[in-house]
Amino acid sequence: MSIIGILIGVILLIVLALRGWNVIVASLLASLVVIVFSGAPLYETFYQAYMVGFSNWAGRFFLMLAGGAVFAKVMEVSGAAQSISNAIMKITGEKNLLVLFFGLWLVATVLVYGGISTWVIVYVMMPIMYPIFKKLDLPWTTALTVFVLAANAIPNNLPGAVTIYNIMPMQYLGTSSTAGWIISLFASSFHLVAGFAYIFWDLKRQQKRGIGFIQPALLKVEQVDDTNLPNPFIAIAPIVITLVALNVFDLDVFFSLSLGIISCIALMYKQIPNVVGAMSEGAANAGLPVIATCAVVGFGSVVASVEGFDTIVNAIINNTPGSPYVSWSIGVTSLAGITASASGGLGIAMESLLPKYMGMGLNPEALHRLASIATCGLDTLPHNGAIVTILSIFGLTHKEGYKHFFVLSLVISLASLIPGLLAVGLFY
Known about the structure:
Blueprint: H1 2-18, H2 23-38, H3 42-77, H4 80-92, H5 97-113, H6 118-135, H7 140-151, H8 164-173, H9 181-208, H10 232-247, H11 253-267, H12 275-285, H13 287-305, H14 307-319, H15 324-339, H16 342-358, H17 364-374, H18 385-393, H19 398-415, H20 417-427
Helix pairs in contact: 1-2, 1-14, 2-3, 2-13, 3-6, 3-11, 3-12, 3-13, 4-6, 4-10, 5-6, 5-7, 6-7, 6-18, 7-9, 7-19, 8-16, 8-17, 9-17, 9-19, 9-20, 10-11, 13-18, 14-15, 15-16, 15-17, 17-20
């Protein structure tokens, strides 16, 4: 009954989110279903599982998201984001959308590859993308697709990437950061081509219906004076300072963002009409994404606390069919799906699944790269915390934007395992 409750709870949360329900209400109802079917104590589970997961996530990430929101706002109102957007358009041009989209994709990809969290990048990229898509009268959901292909998919598993999906396998397998690079070459090339094919198919479909740029009601963006924009090199300086502080000097992400905020204000003070107002609005903007994400993390904590969760994990570990490399990939992505967390599923796989597969004499480099690819697949369910945050920052609801995550980060990610497994068969 507990397993049935988990399945019904996940489905209920997905359906309610896609129908436009507030994710906080949806997570509470879905949690209630899981609790009732599992026969778990109502009061204790809500307060010792849901609220503990809720508060723990807030405690770990609130400062980072608040710092990111303030940083995005000062970059926006100073005109820095607009200036960077203009510079990108000058480099790529406006006529060739493939070049333009690839340029935007490359910027976000480099940030992810360099170790910047998606939670932070979304605050940086959204203000940069907004004026471009508005000027060219392109659907705002297309901006989301370009961002998702970069920040929520390919660069996470590239060899050498400074991401948890690449680093965690190194710690368990003793491999290098470039382990299994041929596998990644096959999988990521497929993902890139298929991803851009989907982006342009969806864009043409919307344009045939006469859909251009429509600003979502939930997206609040300041109007910037185009005649008083900072120099692009000055505009990008706060981003560079933040990246250097985070990746070179290993400064905490909140303090790195704080340096970015301070440098933005110092360098572009004359372009910011109300510094206190901008910082206050930015901090307020962090509220809804944080609470919404905490709510879905709370639901995940409820799922992990009931008996059925352990039963499902054990079934995956002991009964996944197929060749060892195939079953390893299926096992990793299944655990990521159950937890709605790529890093959470990968952590369980490394602790519980890996000893079994290492005992089979499989190639550690192949296991490393397949795990980093597979973990970014079924984790992409509507109650994934990163999805909730990204949609909130883009001002989109699940109903408006989730389908793009489903295709780009779930369907194509899982499909990319096929060429990846082909590379394993050819080279390992």
